[in-house]
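Dear support,

We are seeing what looks like truncated structure output for some complexes. This example has two components. We would appreciate it if you could run it in full and send us the complete token output so we can diff it against ours.
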Amino acid sequence: MHTRIEILAHKDDGRAHQIEKTLDSMGIKACVRAVDVYSSASVDAQKDSFAQSLANPVTQKVNQTPTDFDWALEIGFLPGVTDNVGHTTSELLKLSAQNDNDDADQECFSSRLYLIKGEAQRDDIEKLSAIISNKLIQRISIKSNDEYARDGGMDVVIPKVVLEQNDVIADNVNLDIDDAALETLSKYGIPNADGSKRGPLGLPLVYLKAIQAYFKKEGREATDIELETLAQTWSEHCKHTIFASPIDDVAKGLYKHYIQRATKEIRAERGDQDICVSVFSDNAGGIIFDDNYLITDKVETHNSPSALDPFGGAITGIVGVNRDCMGFGQGAKPVVNRYGFCLADPRKTPNYFRDAKCTDALLPPSNIMNGVIAGVEAGGNCSGIPTPSGFVYFDDRFAGKPLVFVGTIGLMPREINGKPAHEKCAQPGDKIVVAGGRVGADGIHGATFSSVALDEGSPATAVQIGDPITQKKMSDAIIKEIRDFGWYSAITDNGAGGLSSSVGEMAEGSGGFHLELETVPLKYPGLSPWEIWISESQERMTFSVPPENTDKLIAFFAKRGVEATVIGTYTDSGRAKISWHDDVIMDLEMDFLHDGNPETPLTTTFTRGGEAEPDLAEPDNYEDAMLTMLGRLNICSKEFIATQYDHNVQGTAVLGPLQGKGRVYGDVSVTRPALDSPKAVVLSQGLFPRYSDIDTAAMAAAGMDMAVRNAVAAGVDFSRLALLDNFCWCSSDEPERLGQLKRAVETIYDIAVKYQTPFISGKDSMFNDFKGYDENGQAIKISAPPTLLVSSIGIMPHTKHSISLAPKAAGDSVYILGETKDELGASEYYDELGHLGSNVPETDAHQNLRLYKLYARASRDCLISSALAVGYGGLGVTLAKKTIAGQFGLDIDLSGFELRSDKMLFSESTGRIIVTVAPKNKKSFERNFKGFEHCHYIGSVSYSENLLIRDILTLDIKTLDEAYKAPLRDY
Amino acid sequence: MSAKVIVLSGYGLNSEEELLHAFEQSGVEGDIVHINDLIEKPDTLSAYNILAIPGGFSYGDDTGSGNAFAQKMKLALWDALKAFVARDTLTIGICNGCQILVNLGLVPALNEYGERDVAVTYNASARYQCRWIDLAVESASPWLKDIDSLHIPVAHGEGRFMMEDDTLSALKENGQIAARFVTPDGTAAEGEFPHNPNGSVYDIAAMTDKTGRILAIMPHPERGMFTWQRDDYHEIKDAAQREGVNLSDESDGLQIFKNAAAYFSS
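Here is the complete output from our reference environment:
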């Protein structure tokens, strides 16, 4: 008999009130009760003591669900979707049953029931369910009071996965077919016996022909698992073919010729002052923190999955990049998370569909926004990793595919057991051990799928949901205990491509592997071998373990509630070999697997974009103009996100997301990752997607300069600053888009070498396009603007050098550092007025470098009381933010500048910082910048309540504060 | 016996390292012990006189924050726990630790240890809240000796104390309400967000058992024990520099741990 336990929450329950609010926004007044539901087929679940253990008797009632409602809406998970609450309940059931009998099946499933009393129709409840759930992963049940009474309540649903058992063998695939058939195979996948297809391989024809030739040479047919493996390993997602391929006259490709070379040249130039320890070769980049520690950083994107299931995509992204950190060297401890979202305006409701019949709608921007925010919240908070900084950037071209950036900074000793901690290598004879979660059908084809544009055929099985607690148990066991025992030769995470990537990559160290696939622990029976091999089920790490250590490793994991299993052996055979029971189902040359993909030379074109520079009248009213600018989505406060993210956990936060009494959302964070060291890590980032509409070189340069300048402004040691690049491009099969890419990459090479800021890690996502239909069924393509996110990570010698953006005292002097030019092309101001323009900000790296070096000296000498780098919205917005943050007025005089007032206020010229300086430091400060022609005194922090910009505007703090905080306050 | 602390870890607890650091800064030695190791050897507890359950997300807050971890402890460790609190020991639960103590019925334990008298449930905003708050402290608990107010952060999704009216009256009468949310100028928060960040009844942020030796506190003293951790650090640092005075490294939260050290040295 199946058991259903209903736990009724208190009538004053915050979750129920949220539903009431949502209904209210639909014009329906209702009273809602929340009920947590647990279902199980286990006999142990029938015991009353178990049900009681799931409730707090003070606020909750067990199986006393009231019936005075109009509608019952229940939301549970579809079979196979990660159900974290269900997992915990299953563990509780196992714990409580241990004292009695031992039932084999103690699986529990969770769902939530809302009882709604109010004048709503079935349509309304369906609409509500669409807002608060996602049909890709969840099941919905709606009953009217009559139906509920007739059926005796809601139905008992046990969403167990049941797979047909007859298909669990490897199939041969005939590749002796013509080019058109090869392309069909690539687009729809390997056919099953029933004619259905397994999902895209995403391989270009030239790759398929190489594979065809390989098997011809081997004199046999390929197996399905071999083809799937090659598709994973050679995917754009894993191989970064666009950055690796020869492009125009750049034979080595963009990555090697520009990005890697920049770092090489900087390291050589720096000599013994080099800060890099491990660059580009591992799951993250690593730089020196101090004599004892290394600090690592990695920023990932998780765009395609987040478009389908924003919550699942984002949580999987953040816990995935946490594993990159754990999988760096011998394993680094995650100490900071960072995030960034590029989204469409959440207040708009565009109608885009995946199908021409307009039945399969894209999620509205507000759902995507709320989902990705919640996903990073759940992943980061549950893992105990602080999230002190991030950004949100809005542009409606992110409606089809949002960009979701997630990053993790790690801390690790420079040496462990007398050996460099960042080194690792699988040895022949080592056992392959996998630890953590089990394998299911989730996330199959994630790697190949994120390498193509989203359209109607995108597979829902690509959606996964992270389970942060399973991962936390594993992470603690590795980073806090096992790592320091020295039991393994190498460790890496399971991300895109699952075992096929982790084992395949690690085996490059030893020179081959033999995996016994039937030994991999599964969530449920019935998976085919190829599915087990490429499944992206989360929360798994792969180890290379000398045979004498495997038993103790597995036993130790078991003591921490983590399953670990030997699944094969690393070899030096030169072969990638997999067996399934007694059959060999894969046997590929390692060289072919890793380097067999043919070169695909690329050619590019480039045309500068933009319009003529508009001839605009000055605004009649500068007060209105300023308030409008402050309320723009890219400028206004994102405090509602900051307060949801735990930035204090680990007790390391120095400068968090909200700065000053006025709580301004900052662009930079300062963290003391090691409790026993006063040194701090400074993190920031920069991106200007809209600048690409004119010139991607300007876009890349501005983003890079912003990432550096934010960190400089906060007081970083400029000689200890490194960068990460994330290219999120679109339509990367078009020469013009590739031309834009090449131009951006050339630019960041130049600036990196000038600034002497090495790149240590990067990741790209090349097809951020959505192909679908508008509300009239017309085909459309929405491409995200070409976007480079540059993230910065630097070291500050002592937290006492940290500088926040808020002015500290009336009477202080205000200075502008850097030159303001007539550069409003693609600016926030022009966009507000409906123009693009032409004069996009150009970055003068030489002049900026002079400023940053002088500034670093001033900040080291503690001469600067507050600082804010000028970003979106220019000088005017920067002054307003400083006014709000400090809750002090400013008295500013810009009459010494030649630019017209609107251009002076809203130009986005790069390389500028606004600072305030205490009277006693004024002389030293001015002496410090002597000879630098762009250091100007522009006024003072005043005793008044106003931001006064003489002859231009006067606005009081409260008015500014409201304009800045109101737009997103209610999200 | 000089003070020695056992800090629990495992299953999603996550603040054990900074919590042990807080005790060490206050002169208390100790160990982080995984809950499974303690369950294997419950006698381990007898070597300690302070039990500290840190913040975190044990079992992901599933089935109610702190509930699953408390159920696990109750099934496997209850006798050892009862023996521990019966001795002259101190126990502290912070954030998730507070939720665990409440679900274990060790706090407030109006009648006897083991009965759940109150609940710590979803914030009224239904949102996780990470922010700095102000507390007024009025308690005879040894943990809170010589403390009138605290400026420390909260970080939780379920921090709202709820209870029957009778329970609240009893707690007031017994002096078991250890700390209440107030506005920055010290007046009662009266449920007002954000000063009371979770809608907690009577602005309750912390409570003790009847002896005062067991403290369950939602805000995080270990994240507010150094000046550089404070939200107003940059303002304080700047003011000190202007006045040419040295800035103290210590902030409000540390006194709680110093009190624990003093309790066993006196």
